């Protein structure tokens, strides 16, 4: 289990951080830690671009949510397997002024006692700004080891050379910022990239695999050890996806393929009974998926304090 450096537990931090931003668990021999990067307030319509607005309004009402804005949680994960420390996604960083409550990953990693210097590998589920932006925060690259390996699918790197936004529904200026951030990330880290085709075992029991859908190179990460398993599913599913897996998200570059991927992963999770964590499910975003008639049900774990 991750241990916290006592020197980081100053009374100042205790009072400044009343809401926890990290949740640790073990998957067999693998230590895993979910860290919150904050939340992204987005127009509610972006999570159901093909739904009847009345159906979306009903869903939001049933969830006790306001009708127009929906806070997307934003989670990253750290895994330790053998001698490797693996960061899975990196949060928003300072890439978008419209999301001032996100981008907290560097200081929250510090608060969790994880040194950037100890990270041997970074896995990116995809290159949207809320997943790579943290790597562009001033000082982060300088603290990462020069030989850090950043694993990303070939299809993702190639997509961002000339990205297609024609099937997306995003508020402005999000597409331009996504494009600029992916380009900055590539230019900054091209020498560290370890590009994989369809899957790659990054460390014992830690495997990234291509799913496509959300973006052409979107990938999920499986942690498997000692008969236990957890999938970090990136942006394959959002909170609304359990009740309405066919509702398309405005950030999906191929919404029909993204729906097939989402349903396929839900079915897989129902079958395996493995744990699910996803970038935009409510923190700490650790639970299982049950089949409930035609829809899916999120079954959160009981916190193990
Ligand atoms: Zn995202």
Number of domains: 1
The biggest sheet, with number of strands, parallel, antiparallel or mixed sense and barrel status, is: 7 strands, mixed
Give the class from helix and strand content and strand pairing: alpha/beta
Alpha carbon gyration radius: 18 Å
Structural shape: globular
Order of strands, main sheet, comes to 1-2-3-4-5-6-7
Cα distance spanning the termini? 12 Å
The succession of helices and strands, N to C, reads HEEHEEHEHHEHHEEEEEHEEE
Number of helices: 8
Give the total of beta strands: 14
CATH architecture: 4-Layer Sandwich
| Bound heterogens, unique | zinc ion
Percentage of helical residues? 10-25%
CATH classification, class level = Alpha Beta
The amount of beta strand, in percent, is 25-35%
**Oligomeric state of shown chains:** single chain
CATH topology: Metallo-beta-lactamase, Chain A
Describe this structure in words.
This protein has a single domain (6-300), classed as Ribonuclease Z/Hydroxyacylglutathione hydrolase-like (Metallo-beta-lactamase, Chain A). The chain has helices at residues 11-16, 53-62, 105-111, 129-132, 140-143, 154-159, 174-189, 255-272, and strands spanning 22-27, 30-43, 69-81, 84-88, 121-123, 149-153, 193-196, 199-203, 206-210, 219-225, 228-232, 275-277, 287-292, 295-300. Mean pLDDT is 94; it is low at 6-12. The strands form three sheets. Strands 1-2-3-4-5-6-7 form a seven-stranded mixed β-sheet. A five-stranded mixed β-sheet has the order 8-9-10-11-12, with no helix packed on it. Helices cover 23% and strands 29% of the residues. The protein has 305 residues and is of the alpha/beta class. A hairpin with a 2-residue loop joins strand 3 and strand 4. The structure holds zinc ion. Zinc ion binds at residues 128, 130-131, 235, 279-280.
């Amino acid at each position: 289990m991750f241990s916290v450096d006592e020197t980081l537990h100053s009374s100042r931090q205790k009072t400044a951080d009343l809401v926890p931003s990290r949740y640790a668990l073990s998957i067999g021999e693998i230590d895993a830690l979910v860290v919150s990067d904050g939340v992204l307030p987005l127009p509610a319509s972006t999570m159901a671009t093909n739904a009847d607005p009345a159906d979306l309004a009903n869903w939001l009402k049933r969830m006790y949510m306001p009708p127009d804005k929906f806070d997307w949680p934003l989670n990253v994960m750290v895994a330790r397997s053998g001698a490797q420390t693996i960061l899975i996604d990196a949060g928003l960083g300072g890439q978008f002024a419209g999301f001032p409550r996100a981008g907290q990953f560097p200081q929250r990693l510090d608060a969790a006692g994880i040194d950037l210097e100890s990270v041997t590998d970074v896995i990116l589920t995809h290159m949207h700004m809320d997943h790579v932006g943290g790597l562009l925060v001033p000082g982060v690259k300088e603290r990462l080891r020069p030989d850090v390996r950043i694993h990303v699918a070939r299809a993702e790197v190639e997509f961002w050379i000339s990205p297609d936004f024609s099937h997306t529904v995003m508020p402005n200026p999000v597409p331009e910022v996504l494009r600029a951030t992916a380009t900055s990330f590539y230019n900054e880290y091209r020498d560290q990239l370890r590009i994989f085709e369809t899957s790659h075992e990054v460390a014992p029991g830690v495997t990234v695999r291509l799913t496509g859908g959300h973006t052409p190179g979107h990938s999920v990460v499986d942690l498997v050890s000692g008969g236990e398993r957890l999938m970090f599913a990136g942006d394959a599913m959002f909170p609304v996806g359990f009740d309405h897996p066919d509702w398309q998200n405005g950030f999906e570059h191929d919404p029909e393929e993204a729906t097939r991927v989402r349903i396929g992963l839900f079915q897989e999770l129902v079958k395996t009974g493995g744990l699910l964590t996803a970038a935009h499910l409510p923190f700490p975003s650790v639970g299982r998926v049950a089949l409930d008639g035609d829809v899916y049900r999120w079954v959160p774990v009981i916190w193990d304090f």
